[in-house]
Amino acid sequence: MRRISPLLLIASALVLTLFGVWDLLHVKRLLEVNLNDFGRFYYGMVAWLAGGDPYAPNLATPVDLGDGVVLELLNLGTPPFLLVILPFALLPPTTAIAAWGVVSVASLAVAARTVVRSLELRPGPGEWLVAAAAFVGFAGTAAQLVTGQVVWLLAGPFALAWRASRRDQWATAGALFGLLAAFKPFFLVFGPWLLLRSPARGGGGFVLAFGGACAAATLVMGVDAWTGWRGAMDEVGWAWLPMNGSVLGAFARALAPGPVFTPFVDASSWVRPLWLGSAGLVLVVSLIRAWRAEADRAVLILLLGALLAAPVGWVYYHLLVVIPLLAHLQRRPPPGLVVVGWVVAFGFPFAASWLFRDVASLVATVGATYLWGTVGMWLGALRPAPPSHPAPT
After folding, report:
1. Does the pLDDT value for residue 110 go beyond 60?
2. What DSSP element (H or E) covers 66?
3. Higher-confidence position of 226 and 7
4. 2: pLDDT strictly greater than 70
5. Cβ-count burial of 349 within 10 angstroms (0-12 exposed, 13-18 middle, 19+ buried)?
6. Would you list the domain boundaries of the chain?
7. Per-residue DSSP letters for 223-277?
8. Rg of the chain in Å (alpha carbons)
């Protein structure tokens, strides 16, 4: 166990205190806006239980951004994911969000335990303090708390899927990644990788789990649920929101006039072609590099590539990156400047983007820190780690 600098411990304690208050303010905001994203899922399923459309506008879908800007952010949860929400829709709103929080934190604890045990980490009190400060200061934590999103719930299954991959337990890995893909489509990138690495067990497990989850949702909610989900997806026009660290988010902010940000240049017609070209390149390169990479690096490459290529790579999803990243860094410790870059990129509060929304050059640079941080990690992960050698005796 390495000795931690007293200065780092003091800084961690300050971050834990200051950002802890900041995060609590985001919880307060969640309760003020009809439970935000969780409310969209929750009230959508309440409507479905009453015979309505889960993807229609509901109490939580309008969002007032100020200055007369009101967005209609629809429920985008896939039908299999809405089955997870169904039990919560049977509860009163306050009880539902409390229960959602308990289950989410429990899944997060499973993920932490899985990582610590799998990597044989032995953190002391100082390391736990630094880790807690990093978690609290991470912009994705505030984003998760203000939205009530699903990433903490996904952390446990994702960690178990990662562990199964590194143990060559391909049937388990395939089944877990297949379920994750049914809930969040950006996990579909793991399907081709599993088919290449283990066609029968990994690929078969993925297809069966994904297909089974989709079939279950269809049996319970009907084919109309998929039609409603597709219609809601077609209405998405908010990729420019500052939480989005994907390539599309950066292009939408920098190249297209929007209700909040001033673009660097008005080239709206180029946004979609540039995004599709960039996303295709990132996914192809990710799959090629992940094909023969060790499991830790392969999972890291694919997850980062998926977040870059997806229409929305909300910063709270980057919490999942920590799981394979820690394993990769055991083989290749990062230089200090790289760590500083990560802290700056992912510690930047998304709400601060509103301060320079009229300065186009800052919108394209500082306003895209999550993108630059993700690109940097992805490029670093593409390089194979040096082979590990046994210590001399």
Report:
1. yes
2. strand 62-66
3. 226
4. no
5. middle
6. 239-386
7. HHHHHHHHHHHHT---TTSTTB-SHHHHHHHHHS--SSPPPSS--HHHHHHHHHH
8. 21
